[in-house]
Amino acid sequence: MSDPSTRRPDIDGLRVICILLLHLYHSARMFNVNDPWHVKSPRLLAALNGPMDLLHMVRMPLLMLIAGLATAFALRRRNLGAFAWDRVKRLLLPLVFGMLVIVPPQVWVEWVWKGQYAGSYWSFWPSVLRGAPYPKGSLSWHHLWFVAYLFAFCILALPLFTWFRSASGARLLGRAEAFLARGANLWWLAVPVMLGRFLLRDHPETHNLVRDPKNLVFYGGLFLAGHLMGLLPSLDGRLKALRHWHLGLALATLAGVCLSDKLPVPLRYLVFYTGIWASLCAALGYGRAHITRSTPLLRHAQALAYPFYIFHQSVIVVLGWWMLRFQLPPWPFFGLLTLASFLATWGLCEAVARIGWLRPCLGMGPANPGGRPGSRLGAILPGEAR
Asked: Measuring CA to CA, how many Å separate 91 from each of 82, 85, 145, 306, 382?
């Protein structure tokens, strides 16, 4: 079992914050305007559009950057074979379980709500086993696309991770650290990410892994950037030192994002992704500066973060669809759905953490002899933050 004192509390804290923001964002998608969702409220809330656009800028990019960081930490104490097997257990197994058990209720609710299906869930579920992909079929990973992409990045990057451990790789990392730790040079890590996003701007975002070059380059670039940050410890100091500057730049770009439709395309992308990278760097810097102690609450929250991520969207969709029958005003509906789905998801996580045979299906390690639910849970999204 890992020693909690060796964990990085800043990474654990940012991970938990990401999951909470993700839950809030997905709760709001039932109510915002011009954003398709599996089930929508008949009365929408246009006021949510702006805040959701800002959340969308940073929620998943920060989670992927943290995943890259955590992968670097995980490899400090594992050989590559053990690391690959751990990714199979912590990512691939929960992904398969999620596609067969966790995600199908979302598809069923959507089809029932749209009038595409009239039967019970139990008569619907066998269609998942036929393997026809969503939306024509019922097999999908929906919000678990992130797990699929992270697993692919981890496995595809194994040759690169091997080279980093070689003498030539170590020499290059040493030179890279000396360069990136000077001034604002760590921004060079963002250049491939921004450039790829701009060059692939006309490609749709499919989240199907195979035909999704825009997201593969973007999230793959963030994963590698995070991994390099984890390998180059001097960058911690630069992120901490530049945190106020990054925050100011992130806030300054908000006005540019609001006016981005009036800007020429290259400048629009430059402003938008400058804001994203500045926000990510500010988050990492403030986390390093201020989340310096691991508390029992933080340890328990990070322990449940991965199963919470797996469960949360299905709970939101099913509960939101069920609550439509009460015809609540939109703001109370949104607030009640957010709170009720949070409590229901949390309760599910606490319950599953106590069922030994279910724990691996949610990316959890074995429980300790005391049976405390927070023990040996996989860090979101795996790669321990040490």
From this structure: 14, 10, 11, 10, 7
Amino acid at 68: G
Return d(Cα 305, Cα 381) in angstroms, integer: 9
Chunk the chain into consecutive blocks of 10 residues (it has 386) and report each block's average pLDDT, rounded to whole numbers: 60 96 97 94 95 91 96 91 96 98 98 96 97 96 98 97 96 96 96 94 94 96 97 95 96 80 85 94 97 94 96 98 97 98 98 94 77 46 42
How much is the pLDDT for 77? Answer: 85
User: d(Cα 292, Cα 320) in Å, to the nearest integer?
Assistant: 37
DSSP designation for 88: I
Which residues lie closer than 8 Å to 287 by C-beta, 6 or more apart?
10, 11, 13, 14
pLDDT at 1: 31
Residue 380 is predicted with a pLDDT of: 43
Contact 113, 73 (CB under 8 A): no
Residue 174, domain member (yes or no): yes
Does residue 226 lie in a domain region? yes
CA-CA distance, 51 to 250, in Å (whole number)?
A: 15
**Does residue 136 form part of some domain?**
no
pLDDT for 368: 63
Range(s) of the domain holding residue 238: 4-103+141-362
- Report pTM: 0.93
Residue with tokens 């990278």: 277
pLDDT of residue 372: 52
Q: What's the rounded Cα separation, in Å, for the pair 270 and 189?
A: 15
Instruction: Please report, for residues 80, 193, 293, 368, the alpha-carbon distance to residue 9 in angstroms, rounded to integers and kept in the order given.
Output: 25, 27, 6, 21
| Count of structural domains, the chain | 1
Residue 343: CA count within 13 A, CB half-sphere: 5
E strand intervals along 50-101: none
Between CA 372 and CA 149 the distance in angstroms is: 31
383 within domain boundaries:
no
